User: Fold these one by one.
Assistant:
Number 1:
Amino acid sequence: MENIVLLLLGLAISAIGIINIKGNINTVHSYNRRKVTKEDAPKYGKTVGAGTLLIGISLILSFVVSLWNEHAMSFIVAPGIVIGLAIVLYGQFKYNHGIF
């Protein structure tokens, strides 16, 4: 139970991802969404939210797996973060036309 922080952080990040998927992109920093048009805002929210949700779910899964085998946590967290960040960066470049 010492990895409860993973669960709490995973739940918080997943909640932010769900909020973004629903179209509310106010949780994204203003400089990361300043070039996103009104028409692209829902698509941007879904893309960034999907990446964020993937990161959150990987943290939650790593908590669950840590109850049986702590060594396996890194095999869940690392790919989840890398793939999630790749999805977020894809959304940044496609809809914001750059990182900033």
Note: The helical segments are 4-21, 30-33, 41-66, 74-95.
Number 2:
Amino acid sequence: MKELKISTKGRYALRLMLDLAMHDSGGYIPIKEIAKRQSISEKYLEQIISILGRAGFVQSVRGAGGGYKLSHPLKSYTVGMILRLTEGSLAPVACLDNNVNTCDRSSQCATLMVWEKLYEAINGVVDSITLEDLVEYEKQLGTDYVI
């Protein structure tokens, strides 16, 4: 049974993207630096960054002076984009995973309305918060961030 929880992969992807945003000086940031700042295994971050790279969210350069940086402006990334990339569907129930509900019981399901409203609420939140918003919030906090 799928739980309504975001996995470490999703949380770490968001932390990784936020780290790249917070430490952007125009150059590339080595994964080793991110791993150290975030206290996350370098190997695990390499797996996550490869997903982000294949999706075009980050650019990379190998060798001396190499590393990673964001491909697009901060405001173009939403929390929802990042989580869906790493988590897949954020639907609270399997019947809402696809665009068309193929459940045989959907026409007689009294609880479907609950799951649809919950799904709308989840999407409304994660799709309304951008990486730029998180950076601004971090600046207001003035502390090291933890997600």
Note: The chain is about 50% helix and 5% strand.
Number 3:
Amino acid sequence: MQVTGIFSAIIVGLIIGVIARLLIPGRQNIPIWLTVVIGIVAALIGTAIAGALGVAATRGIDWIELILQIVLAIIGVLLATSLYGRRKVS
């Protein structure tokens, strides 16, 4: 992976993570860096799933891939919120 690919993954991950947080009702008590990491991981896994299903390369916007990435990010943010919220702050 080239530097531009890594930079693109970070930008897409940020956007996917923020979209996921906006679609989940209520407040998520997780840091923004965790949202970005979840978004990056969701973007990579969503791309892999879309590739396995044969829907990753289409003309125009890859809607199925994008929806997969957002759904995975929502699941990731919900899991992180439930796990991160269990931590007690002293």
Note: The chain has a mean pLDDT of 83.
Number 4:
Amino acid sequence: MAKTIIAEGRTTTEAIEKGLNELGVSKDRVEIKILENDEKRSFFSILAPRIVKVEMTLKDESNHVKDNKLAEEHKKYQKKEKVHLKPEELEVATKNLTSFLDEFVSKVKNISYNITSDEEYIYVEINGENAGTFIGYRGDTLNAMQSILTTIANKNLKTKAHIILNIENYREKRKKSLEGLANKLSKTVIKTGKNVTLEPMSAYERKIIHNYLQKNNLVTTYSVGEEPYRKVVISKKNI
């Protein structure tokens, strides 16, 4: 028999999120029914906080497993069929970036850049005394700049170039910090048995958390919410 729970919250969204955390699954794994309360509120009860209740039932697990297998096969196919830049396209992308970055560093004192590449990515490193200004709060400015550089690099290209921007080794430092956080919170989840929901993160940072905890046999991770407020949930595995 499918597992069913009742979750409560001040809003429907909050109630659903609490239910997902309790079940330790993503939204696509459950059927949701909003329970209506027909009880009339008195004059005095109006001052009491409103409670929304939702009924959440786990979907057939066999279908979920089947869907997961199909998704994995699709990922393998996509990875196999990924198209890389041709040498001449890489040259065009590099020239586009160089032209922009030469002008950029000429207007900002005490910074320099370096461009390297492999089969999948073009890497842009920016360093210098004033480079940290372009990182922003938790890399917000850096990520915005990366999007701009990606647009510039892809001018006159048929195959999409993928750019990774790093400033003053921020990516490495942030990765180490997130892995430390994941390690600490996973221990809390194992000890208490309760799910932990992290603050909203970019897809890049969520992937760091997911990848790091893949090797942990006692917990599992999944994402909830909509961009740009999507969050990672760490849940204890039922062993």
Note: The chain has three domains: 1-82, 87-168, 171-239.
